[in-house]
Amino acid sequence: MIHTDPIDLEDDAMVLIPLLDVQPSAGAGTIVEAEPVVGRVAFDAAWLRARSITPHAAKVLTARGDSMEPTIRSGDTLIIDTAIDQAVDNGIYVLVYGDALLVKRLRIKLDRTVVITSDNKDAGFEETVTPDQLDILRIAGRVMWYGRMI
To answer: Are 104 and 48 in contact (CB under 8 A)?
Structure first.
C-alpha cells in the first residue's frame, strides 16, 4: 500500500515523499520563491522510522554548490524532516537565512547563539546569529539522509 499523507503507517507501507523543485544552496544561497512538487519518491515506512525520519513531514531536495563538501556534494539527494523546525543539536539543516535557502551545519552555543558553517573549510562560510537576531533564521528541516550517484 502506498501513502501520500501517512499518519499511522504499517511497517510494510510505502510512503510517497514529495520531491521539491527547490535546491538549497551549499554555497552562498538561493532565493526562495516557491516549493513546487515535481514528483514523488517512494520509501519504506519502516526504513524512514529506523532513521528517525517523520514520514509525513519528509521532503526530498537536491543540494547545489560545494560548500558542504566532502559531506554533501552538489547534486546529492537529501531527505529532510520538516517536523524538525528548531536546531536541537549540532547537525546539518536546511534553513532560510534572510531570503536565502541554505543547507549548512549549525552549532548551538550555550547562550543560544547559532553558528552557521560549511563543511568545506575552503568555502570560508561562517555566520553567527545571536539570540536577538533569531527572527532572521528559520529552520526548514533537518537533513536526515543523503545519497548520491556513483
So the answer is: no
Q: How many residues does the chain have?
A: 150
Residue 118: Cβ within 10 Å count: 23
pLDDT digits (tens, 9 = 90+) for 88-112: 888 999 999 887 889 999 999 999 8
pTM for this predicted structure:
0.84
Answer whether 108's CB lies under 8 Å from 114's CB: yes
The span from the CA of 94 to the CA of 75, in Å, is 15
Q: What are 37-57's pLDDT values in tens digits? A: 889 999 998 899 899 999 889
DSSP class of residue 135? G
Task: Give the DSSP per-residue string, 52-120.
Answer: T--GGGEEEEE-BSSTTTTTS-TT-EEEEETT--S--SS-EEEEEETTEEEEEEEEE-TTS-EEEE-S-
